[in-house]
Amino acid sequence: MIEVKNLFAGYKKEPVLRDVSCRFEKGKITAILGQSGSGKSTLVKCFNRIIEDDGGFINGSILIDGEDIFKKKKEELRKEVSIVFQDPLAFPFSILKNISFLLEYHKGLSKEGQRKRAVEILELVGLYDEVSDRLDDKATKLSGGQKQRLSIARSLSVDPSLLILDEPCSALDLKNTLAIEELLVKLKENYTIIIATHNLGQAKRIADNIIYLDEGRIIETAGKDEFFKNPKNELVKIQLEMME
Ligand SMILES: Nc1ncnc2c1ncn2[C@@H]1O[C@H](COP(=O)(O)OP(=O)(O)OP(=O)(O)O)[C@@H](O)[C@H]1O
Ligand SMILES: [Mg+2]
Questions:
Q1: pTM for the structure as a whole
Q2: At 244, is the pLDDT very low, low, confident or very high (cuts 50, 70, 90)?
Q3: Same domain, yes or no, for 97 and 191?
Q4: Do 112 and 199 lie in a common domain?
C-alpha cells in the first residue's frame, strides 16, 4: 500500500500539486488521469524523489508500506520504485546487456546468473521469443514497442515493489499498446502499478482504480466502474462524454 498525504510539489515556489492525498493498492493498476499540464508526471516523479533532481520540491508525506520515502536512502528508494517513461529507452549496447548491467550492479550476479535472470525477465515481458536469436545484437535496432517492453524489463530487473509508467504507450501503435496493456494486467498480481495517461480508453481497459487530476488537485477518485458509470465531477463528466 502506498499512501500519499497532503502532498504539495512543484518546481519553483508555486506548487503544481496542491494538497494531494491518495492511496495505491498492491495487486491493482491505478490510473492517474488528467489533461495536459494537470500534474500527472509531477506526481509520478515524487515517488522516487526524482523531481528533486529536476530542481523541484516535495512537501507532505509518501509512505510505502508505512515507511516514509524521505527516511530511505535514494538509491534504495529507486530500486523499490521503478519508473518507465514515455519514450522507450534502449541503451546503445546489446539487448542482453540492457538488463544484465543492472543485475551485475545491484545484485552482483555472475555472468551466467545475469544471463539466466535476464532471459527470465525477457520471457516475463513477452520479448524473449522475438529476440532469443539476437540477444547480443544492439538493442537500438529494436522497434518502438519492443524497446518499451525492454524498458519495462529493465525496470523489473531491480525487483521493485512499485512500478510506475508515465504515458508508456503514447509513442506506440495500437498493436504494441495492447501488448503493453496485456503485460501490465499480467504483472499486476505481483506489483503495485501506477500508470499516468491522458488516454481514458486505456484506463477503462486496464485500470482498477482511477485518480483524476485537474490543476494539481484530485477532483475525482473512484474504482474504475464507478468512475466511468457514475462520475460526479462536471469536468470529468464532460471528458467522458467527449470520449463517446
Ligand atoms: N521541469 C519542470 N520545470 C518547471 N515546470 C515544470 C517542469 N515540469 C513540468 N512543469 C510544469 O508543471 C505543470 C504540470 O506538468 P506535468 O508535466 O506534471 O503535467 P502532465 O499532467 O504530466 O501533462 P502531460 O499530459 O502533457 O504529460 C505544468 O504547468 C508544467 O509546465
Ligand atoms: Mg506528463
A1: 0.95
A2: low
A3: no
A4: no
DSSP output for 177-214? HHHHHHHHHHHGGGSEEEEE-S-HHHHHHH-SEEEEEE
Q: How many domains does the chain have?
A: 2
Distance, CA of 82 to CA of 158 (rounded, Å): 8
Same domain, 98 and 181: no
pLDDT at 243 over 90: no
* pLDDT one-digit tens code per residue, 17-47: 999 999 999 999 999 999 999 999 999 999 9
- What residues pair up with 23 in beta bridges, in sequence order? 3
Q: How many Å apart are CA 65 and CA 24, to the nearest integer?
A: 10
**Residue 154 in domain:** no
Residue 155 placed within a domain: no
Q: Is the CB of 42 within 6 Å of ligand 1?
A: yes
140-168: b or e for each residue (b if 16 or more CB lie within 10 Å)? Answer: eebeebbbbbbbbbbbbbbebebbbbbbb
Ligand 1 probe mutation, 17, 18, 41, 51, most atoms within 8 A of CB = 41
Q: CATH number of the domain that 16 lies in?
A: 3.40.50.300
119 and 203, same domain (yes or no): no
Q: Please tell me the distance between residue 37's alpha carbon and the centre of ligand 1 in angstroms.
A: 5
Amino acid at 26: K
- The residues whose Cβ lies within 5 A of ligand 2, an ion, are 40-41
Residues 96 and 84 in one domain: no
